[in-house]
Design brief:
Mean pLDDT: 81
Largest sheet: 5 strands, mixed
Strand order of the largest sheet: 1-5-3-4-2
Number of strands: 5
Helix content: 55-70%
């Protein structure tokens, strides 16, 4: 008989003590639960132990699986690089225990990738392994580890691509049996388990705050998931689905370039960079909280009206379904309504203003005045439009147009387009070099957004005197300058 290798002997010793270790862990878990629910239960598990954790699942509210082949290559590169540093920590996993099992709150991307790795090892390497213990371990994993299902096309696409990348990695000659053993038994994760979902998300926030900074919109997602009232709990997955189907970069642009600036400028505040220090701008009131504030009663009544109307419909897809009448400057309703608000303005920004689609169509249908038609055409085509400073002028134009339509719809839209154009592009024409600070100062000096915010009728905004241009310092904006002259806004 072949003598057992050193790694086989180590593995047998580990397996012999597994039952005792798990009993001790269970006792520690029970002791921790009796002491306080606020304290997370902490384990250090090997990859194999993690994937064999009973009842572990990926909840429906989790974002899609978005790791790319680059992430996969980095993970396996790190594992190969640190193969002599047993044990090697791969990171943390945060779990929330409910009546149905253990939900992964943080660590989904890495966990799914490890599952794909085990699947690839079973398919491509298990039959040819010299170590029977290692083959038995893979067989146990194949029959007992979690097997998540993903309906999102984004997840399915990444899973397919990454599985092929993993197959290429584990088939290489340098992916030895020793490295397979190191992956399964020498690599570890720190697992935190909490019994309360809001505490799990709070813990997730604090853990990420100690390492890689989360984007502000990621912090807002975690906050508003915690704010879901009990009555809306069953709607959580649907409420965040659109959010998760949108790329992080697109969400970052939506918040930083539009929603953050509009809400800040409407309050007369500077709005240069959207950071985690500004997330309170998108936190508001929980309508199910114990205290009922008079200022929130209007929101509560509308919230209940929309809910009641839609509950009486034959189906959720009924065309008579009522949408919540969101406003850009409204008090944020925490939880489900926040996600619905973001979905609402995603549609409005990208469909209507990312490429000025609605304005173009109205111009084609002769629903806009001559100057408004020329404005829409010019700002999309003039030679200097791609410069940074011209982009800042366009940002003011887009944000102010979004605000106007959000408040007054398409009433007097041609005159509104004209006035918004003059206010926005006067900045570009009177300065040779436009910077972020220039844009911010221009908006605040003219009180453009506060003026619109305070307007009761379109005329209150449209009839406000716009500045006359005294000079044109830019050499690449001649079509814009000609419009100013033709509209008689040059001194």
């Amino acid at each position: 008989m072949t003598q057992p290798s050193h790694q086989d002997t180590d593995r047998k010793n580990r397996q012999a003590s597994t039952g005792t270790i798990r009993c001790m862990k269970a006792a520690l878990r029970q002791s921790d639960r009796l002491s306080t629910s606020l304290e997370p239960i902490k384990d250090v598990l090997s990859v194999s132990e993690l994937l064999l954790t009973p009842e572990m699942t990926i909840p429906t509210y989790q974002r899609p699986y978005k790791w790319t082949s680059k992430n996969v290559s980095q993970l396996f590169g790190d594992i190969a690089l640190h193969r002599d540093k047993r044990p090697y920590r791969l990171g943390t996993v945060v779990l929330h225990r409910d009546s149905e099992g253990l939900n992964i709150v943080d660590g989904q991307q890495r966990t799914v990738t490890l599952i794909l790795a085990v699947r690839a090892l079973i398919a491509l390497r298990a039959a040819g392994l010299k170590s029977q213990d290692l083959a038995s371990q893979l067989a146990e994993l194949g029959g007992n580890m979690m097997n998540p299902r993903f309906s999102s096309p984004v997840s399915q696409a990444h899973i397919g691509t990454n599985y092929q990348e993993i197959c290429r990695i584990v088939e290489r000659a340098d992916f030895t049996e020793e490295l397979i053993d190191f992956l399964l038994n020498g690599c570890e994760v720190v697992v935190f388990e909490l019994a309360d979902l809001s505490e799990a998300f709070q813990f997730f926030d604090s853990q990420n705050a100690r390492g890689r900074d989360l984007d502000p919109h990621d912090l807002l997602k975690a906050y508003h998931l915690r704010e879901f009232p009990q009555a809306d709990e069953q709607l959580k997955a649907a409420a965040v689905a659109r959010w998760e189907d949108t790329s992080s970069g697109r969400l970052a642009t939506l918040f930083a370039n539009y929603l953050y600036r509009i809400r800040s400028w409407s309050k007369g505040r500077s709005a240069r960079y959207f950071s985690k220090d500004d997330v309170d701008l998108f936190k508001g009131v929980n309508l199910d909280a114990g205290r009922r504030y008079p200022y929130a009663e209007q929101l509560r009544l509308v919230h209940l009206l929309v809910n009641t109307h839609n509950e009486l419909l034959d189906s959720p897809e009924d065309k008579r379904a009522m949408e919540f009448p969101f406003r850009l400057d409204q008090v944020i309703i925490n939880g489900r309504r926040f996600f619905e608000l973001i979905t609402h303005y995603q549609d409005r920004v990208w469909a209507a203003f990312g490429d000025v689609a609605i304005m173009r169509q109205m111009a084609a249908d002769k629903q806009l005045g001559d100057f408004a038609c020329r404005i829409i055409e010019t700002i999309d085509t003039y030679p200097g439009r791609g410069r940074t400073g011209d982009g800042y002028a366009r940002t003011i134009f887009d944000c102010l147009l979004i605000c106007y339509i959000d408040k007054f719809g398409l009433v007097e839209i041609s005159r509104a387009v004209e006035k918004i154009f003059i206010w926005s592009y006067s900045l570009r024409l009177k300065m040779e070099k436009v910077q972020l600070a220039s844009m911010d100062k221009h908006v605040l000096n003219h009180d453009l957004f506060r003026l619109l915010n305070d307007a009761t009728l379109p005329a209150d905004f449209i009839n406000h005197e716009a500045p006359l241009l005294e000079r044109n310092e830019s050499t690449k904006t001649e079509p814009v300058y000609k419009l100013f002259k033709d509209m008689r806004y040059c001194a």
